[in-house]
Amino acid sequence: MIKALVFLATGFEEIEAVTIVDILRRSNIQVTTAGLTPNPIEGAHKLKIFSDKSVDEISDQEFDAIICPGGAPGYKNFRKDSRVIRIIKNAYDQNKVVAAICAAPAVLSDAEILENKKCTIYPGTEDELIKGKGTPKSEKVVVDGNIITSKGPATALEFALKIVEVLAGKQVADAVKRKVLANIVC
Which residues are tagged catalytic? Predict the structure, then answer.
């Protein structure tokens, strides 16, 4: 079974986190949410979610994909956490999928995995990608090797479906896309 890890930190973007988890689970991908702080974890707009595990309880070796939703101060909390940076670096080095949306691609920059990679980020924060030697693109979702990035809340559905496509194949992604009526909007 394909396994994905979604980090949750105080101030995460609710639309992004919930969309990612929902779409991946609909695609029969086993998703584990890992909180940086004890439960419940409060999102940027006061929605509280209970993570499946603490980041201290997980082994990055067991996952095929590591995913960071954005949100402020959520992405800033990821940036400050050495456990998150270490897990991202390890996953990248093992050629696992590493994905981030909204401002969270800045975390990938901090993890030093964007060099010579095409990527995208929340509009107006492209300097974060450049700092990490990434090449900013204007597309809603960008895939370069094992890195997937996206712009923000409005692109969360397309982002999640792209992760499914990369992990489980286009046929699975297209089936889920039709089932949730995403084929109407993306």
Answer: 102
